[in-house]
């Protein structure tokens, strides 16, 4: 498993789907571990009944069917597919509606889905998903990207309420790829994935949704910032090290 | 999850998967990938077969540089200098090095035979370009290595025939302790056309960078360019060609920098904004009202 995880951080992120399926066929007995530790690209499916798109992932899968958060039905239809209890489903419906507004304000497009299920410790788990195609031909408003995808997976474990507070543990992954093509600069692609965790004990006065939403918003901001400043910044530094821009060479000259 | 059909795959398929991982290793990381692949396979025989097939094309495609056993310098492994699978010409020192692809080392070196080297007429052009190019590479790349190969018409004895050179520049910076590796590769094809008295250049530039501390982010960029100049005496040709290479590579470096500068506020914004369109954090505290006015919310979602 350790070797498999090391491979996943070396293989180009835009090849991760292929890498995962290769690992699954080499290590069939680790498939459960692999599927839980390696985030897979999100697929979008159209729910005809509600006329809306929803995201498929491990968290809304039962057998070979996926549950739509809008209609609460499985596609393709599944007789006894597991569904959240009525109380949790109510929260799920509300979360989907609000998260769609959040998504639209930050992403100006894209698709989002929220899934919830009870966990073994009498609390519950919520999974917030966003998929955005920011390419010119899709939802890229400014038209800078030949290809651009952003996928965010936020899984929050919520403990049982105790004296008006609850423990929240958030694990977030962002996977992205962006490609620009210009005449003098050729093709420029950056792709990557990072995962971070954050735990908090919060008062439930304003409700779970408010707490989870704030955590996700803060986390997404952090992830976006570190991708931009740290991760992209490091690759930019590398380019400058390989072939320094002219001003750097001039600075270097007097020393040598 | 794992259904019956996936349980056992054949040895041939395992080897192909191992080769795929090796071929997709970022610059300078194939040995790390090899270690992982070997342990996942748990079968040294399959691993060795896969490595045998995957390393040579990787080494050539990545233009890896190896130290010559006599420490006289580094040799670039490229298809242009390939004598056979394990032997590569170093045109500058007129030597042929024997290479162990999987270990990525040079095991021995011998003087090149006359058959392997260009005619004196061609060598004059080649050597003049090599001298100019080395000056440029030393100045522009802190760790760059270059080579000039004659890839067509090496036996041409004098004016009246076409010939072709391939120029390669390879620079890499590996610092695994800082979770960061990168490589620059340029391949220039230079055609000397006797009938038109022109020299035509076409270049393929490729830059890759990998940063993987608590994540995995990679840059993959490439660019093609073309240029031409008049046929002149060897020294003048060398200066003109090197100037063109320098200009195109400087322009490409500048455009990469420009792409990076555009990222935070323009390009990246098409994926996710820093702040919502409202320029304030999302009003989660008023979500109760949101859900009470669900219809309005939905409308909002459609309008934006």
UniProtKB/TrEMBL annotation, chain A:
Main location: cytoplasm
GO MF terms held by the record: actin filament binding
Gene Ontology cellular component terms for the protein in this record: cytoplasm; F-actin capping protein complex
Subcellular localization(s) per the UniProt record: Cytoplasm, Cytoskeleton
Gene3D superfamilies on file: 1.20.58.570, F-actin capping protein, beta subunit
GO biological process: actin cytoskeleton organization; barbed-end actin filament capping; cell morphogenesis
Record-linked Pfam families: F_actin_cap_B
Keyword terms of this UniProt record: Acetylation, Actin capping, Actin-binding, Cytoplasm, Cytoskeleton
Keyword Cytoplasm carried by entry: yes
Protein family per UniProt: Belongs to the F-actin-capping protein beta subunit family.
PANTHER family to which the protein is assigned, alphabetical: F-ACTIN-CAPPING PROTEIN SUBUNIT BETA, F-ACTIN-CAPPING PROTEIN SUBUNIT BETA ISOFORMS 1 AND 2
Subunit structure: Heterodimer of an alpha and a beta subunit.
Function: F-actin-capping proteins bind in a Ca(2+)-independent manner to the fast growing ends of actin filaments (barbed end) thereby blocking the exchange of subunits at these ends. Unlike other capping proteins (such as gelsolin and severin), these proteins do not sever actin filaments.
Stated name of the protein: F-actin-capping protein subunit beta
Organism: Asparagus officinalis
Taxon lineage: Eukaryota, Viridiplantae, Streptophyta, Embryophyta, Tracheophyta
Automatic annotation (TrEMBL), chain B:
GO cellular component: cortical cytoskeleton; F-actin capping protein complex
This protein's UniProt keywords: Actin capping, Actin-binding
Domain of life of the native organism: Eukaryota
Entry-linked InterPro entries: CapZ_alpha, CapZ_alpha/beta, CapZ_alpha/beta_2, CapZ_alpha_1, F-actin_cap_asu_CS
Pfam family, one: F-actin_cap_A
GO biological process, one term: barbed-end actin filament capping
Molecular function (Gene Ontology), one example: actin filament binding
Binding partners and assembly: Heterodimer of an alpha and a beta subunit.
Family: Belongs to the F-actin-capping protein alpha subunit family.
Function of the molecule: F-actin-capping proteins bind in a Ca(2+)-independent manner to the fast growing ends of actin filaments (barbed end) thereby blocking the exchange of subunits at these ends. Unlike other capping proteins (such as gelsolin and severin), these proteins do not sever actin filaments.
Protein name as it appears in the record: F-actin-capping protein subunit alpha
Organism placement in taxonomy: Eukaryota, Viridiplantae, Streptophyta, Embryophyta, Tracheophyta
